[in-house]
Structures are given as C-alpha cells and as structure tokens.
Amino acid sequence: MTEPHLRPLADCLDDFWTCAADLPPDRDPGPPDPAPRRLGPSGITVRGRDLAAVLRPAYDAFTRQADGPEG
Asked: Could you tell me the pTM of the whole model?
C-alpha cells in the first residue's frame, strides 16, 4: 500500500481539500492595539515627550475611524 503522502496527484484529486482532522474554532482577537501602545516608549523625544506618547492620540483616532461609526 502506498503511503498517503506518496500517492500520485491524480489519486488525490477527489479528497485534496478534505481536512484530515477537525480544526480548532477561530478566535476573534479583535483589532490590535495601535503601534505606539504595543511597542511602548521609543527612546525618541519630541519637545521633552516620548515619541510614542506624542503619536498615541493620532493612532487612537485612526483606530476609531477605521472601526467605523459603531466602533
């Protein structure tokens, strides 16, 4: 008997897209936090404030806008 992974392609066409095992259910991780929050302090300062802190309001606004009116 031929091993399943060594079968000729022509013999695999009927079940090529069949899953060999049940897949775990998808989990919805939700949208990621904006980059400045995920990355933390940058070590770059702008007028005495860390660049991540300076950019955070803009990234928060982008995220709200991307979420749409219900988000």
From this structure: 0.45
CA-CA-CA-CA dihedral for 32, 36, 41, 43, to nearest 10: 140
Cα pseudo-dihedral 49, 37, 56, 43, rounded to 10? 30
Can you name the residues that pair with 50 across neighbouring β-strands? 45
Strand partners for 45 = 50
Tens of each residue's pLDDT in the chain, 71 residues: 556 578 888 888 888 888 777 877 777 676 667 777 778 888 999 999 999 889 888 888 887 776 666 54
Yes or no: say if 42 and 59 are a contact pair by the CB < 8 Å rule: no
CB neighbourhood size of 52 (10 A): 19
38 within 8 A of 32, measured Cβ to Cβ: yes
